[in-house]
Each structure stands twice: as C-alpha cells, then as structure tokens.
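Thread amino acids onto this structure.
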C-alpha cells in the first residue's frame, strides 16, 4: 500500500513558480539594450509602478529582499527602545529587531489565527516602547482595526511583517494600507516572487528620501553620505522576474484557492487534524496550508513518516523565536505560541499542485495517522499492563 502511494518525485512544501522561459528572456533583453543592471534601472522603476498599483499602496520602495526591507523600516525609527512582537514568526522578524538595536518584547498569540494577541499588547507597553511589529502569519490578517486603535491611542508606530500576505485584502481594503509600514517578501518560495526581493508599502511621503538613501549606503547625493546605510538595492534581473510573474499572480492565487479547498474537503474528516479557518471578510492568498495536530509526538511522527512517501512537510514555525539558541529569551511567557508551535505542520502548497496530488497527500496522511493511533493505543495498553503488574 505504502509503495503504491509513494510519490515518484519529491513533493516539497513549496515550489517556486517559474514563468515561461521565453517570457523571462524576452524581458531581460531590455537589460542588454539599456546596459543597466542595478541602481534604480528602468525595469526596477516599471516594477515599482506596477507593484504600487497591485498592492494599492500610497508609497512603495523596493529592496533586495524582505529581511533588509524590514531592517530598514525599523532603522527609520528615530529613538531606540523596545519593540513588541510575536515569537511565532520566521527568524527574520526578530533578527531585524535585534540588528537595528532594539530590545524585543514578546507578546503571546491568538490560538485561532496564530497572530499577535491584541488583548495582551497594552499590558506590555511601557515608556520605552518604540513600535509594534505584528506579523500576518500565513497570510491571515492580524486584527488590523484593534492594532490601529492601539497604535493611535498610545502614539506607537505600527509596522507589519506582511512577508506572507502579498495580495491579501481585509474588508475589501489592501492589507498594506493598514499600519505605518508593511513589508512584503518576494522570496522565491512566496506566493509572488522576484527571485529574492522585498517591498515596503507606507504612507509617509517623507520616508522615501530616507529609505532610498538607507538602501544605497546612506548616499544622498554625489558628494554627500548622510546616513550609515547598507546595500539593499533590487537589481534588474529581479525586477524582470517580478514583472513577468506579476502578470500571472491572480491566476496563481485562484489555483491555490482550489488546492486549499480540496485539502479542506479531504482533511476535515480525519481525526486528530485541526484546520485554520479563513475569516469571511478576508480575500486570501492561500500562501500556506497549515494544520494543527493533537500533540507534538503526533506532529513529529507525521512529519517524519511522510518522508518515506517522498512527501516533505515543514514544522513552520518551530522552534519558536524565543527558544532560539542565539538569544536568551524564555518561551514560558508565551504559552499559546508554545502550544501552536508544538503542533503545527505546513503541508505542500503551490499553484501547480494537481488535484490528484492533493488527494494522494490526504490519503497518505490518513493512513499514517491511523498507524499512529494504533501504535499509540498499543503504547497505552502496554503502559496499563506494566502498571497493573507492579506490586502494590
Ligand atoms: C515572516 C517572515 N518575515 C520575514 C521574512 C524575510 O523575507 P525574505 O526571505 O524576503 O528576506 C520571511 C521570509 O521567509 C518571513 O517568512
């Protein structure tokens, strides 16, 4: 049974979307014609205009990747101090906070959305709080209305790590229009990509000059360097990939939507699996398909055994950022995040996944979990047996 179901080629958790070869090569011909490879080239500018339109943003700036975009967004904050964020995120969020000289204050997450728990933020605000960095985990929007309220009431900037949320809308509004700044990642494995890439959407026009300088060594004119900047510029090859991919994005999201609903249909009947529900007011991008298992053993067992079927899932996000060896935080303070992180598993999700593949993945998961339950029952029976043999 197992051998029959094994995929002939590995199915990975994500698969970068590549455009038609000729479309890309057609686009990069411009680079040879212009002899312009980086530093705000014509493709960069065209990509920026198209992205601004697609993301419905007031202002946008492009960067070499999402991480550096986030670091530079944080660098625009004038005074150092504390930043409130979540441990249930990718390493990048916390590293960006640390690398820009802020202290991280962790807030726990909501058990249903896995996003920062807005009910717990206010008790963490002190006179040293300089920003809130909230993450739209798996593309599910945070409670943007309540976060806006907190940011306004306390006068604290609100920065979104929207790495997962490209193309998402809430109540018909573009997600990047909430908060002060939003960072979208355009890494190869994301819903939309420019090989590597990051884009900041923001409202304050006066940030443009600063961001442009910061991503180009702090240079403000041919003879002035006003900031200690870095090199975070997007090059023309990245912009060309982004331009070509942007034409396909709506179609890709629709294909992902089909995959998502097929998973929902086949997995909702399997005991031991909890699915994440999408709110009705959200236009989603279906970037990930996370499931929650009953406990850590079950999750780890499934993750391991699926490999025998050439099926590669990902414990995403595990470990939590407040358990990383490079920091000395304590995850005891965020028990919901610990609970979720111990049970989460991201299943393969990309637009080219066929319905037959999704059905096969679900069948395999069902079989593996049935085996797990049998083994678990045997373990329990043996334990009871051992206990009853113990002398009283
Ligand atoms: C939540 C989150 N933040 C930040 C990043 C960093 O983005 P990039 O890979 O484009 O640097 C990622 C990337 O995977 C991410 O998942």
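Threaded sequence (392 positions):
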């Amino acid at each position: 049974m197992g051998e029959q179901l094994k995929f002939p080629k590995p199915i990975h958790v994500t698969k970068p979307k590549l455009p038609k070869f000729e479309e890309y090569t057609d686009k990069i011909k411009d680079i040879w014609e212009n002899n312009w490879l980086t530093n705000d080239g014509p493709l960069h500018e065209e990509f920026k205009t198209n992205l601004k339109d697609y993301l419905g943003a007031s202002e946008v700036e492009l960067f070499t990747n999402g991480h550096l975009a986030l670091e530079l967004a944080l660098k625009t904050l004038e005074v150092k101090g504390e930043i409130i964020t979540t441990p249930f995120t990718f390493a990048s969020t916390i590293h960006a906070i640390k690398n820009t000289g802020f202290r991280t204050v962790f807030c726990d997450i909501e058990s249903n959305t896995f996003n920062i728990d807005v009910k717990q933020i206010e008790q963490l605000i002190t006179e040293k709080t300089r920003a809130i960095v909230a993450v739209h985990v798996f593309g599910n929007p945070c409670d943007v209305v309540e976060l806006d309220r907190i940011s306004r009431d306390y006068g604290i900037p609100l920065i979104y790590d929207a790495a997962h949320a490209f193309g998402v809308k809430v109540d018909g509004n573009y997600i990047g229009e909430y908060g002060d700044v939003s960072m979208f990642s355009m890494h190869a494995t994301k819903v939309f990509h420019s090989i590597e890439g990051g884009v900041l959407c923001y409202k304050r026009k006066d940030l443009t000059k600063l961001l442009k300088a910061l991503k180009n060594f702090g240079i403000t004119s041919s003879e002035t360097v006003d900031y200690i900047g870095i090199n975070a510029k997007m090059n023309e090859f990245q912009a060309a990939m982004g331009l070509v991919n942007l034409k396909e994005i709506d179609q890709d999201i629709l294909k992902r939507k089909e995959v998502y609903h097929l998973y929902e249909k086949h997995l909702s009947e399997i005991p031991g699996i909890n699915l994440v529900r999408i709110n009705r007011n959200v236009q989603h991008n279906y970037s990930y398909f996370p499931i929650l298992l009953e406990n850590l053993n079950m999750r780890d067992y499934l993750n391991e055994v699926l490999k025998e079927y050439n099926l590669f899932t990902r414990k995403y996000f595990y470990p939590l950022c407040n358990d990383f060896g490079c920091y000395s935080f304590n995850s005891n303070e965020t028990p919901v995040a610990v609970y979720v992180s111990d049970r989460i598993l991201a299943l393969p999700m990309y637009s080219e996944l066929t319905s037959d593949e999704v059905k096969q993945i679900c069948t395999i998961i069902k079989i593996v979990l049935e085996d797990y339950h049998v083994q678990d029952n045997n373990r329990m029976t043996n334990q009871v047996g051992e206990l009853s043999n113990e002398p009283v």
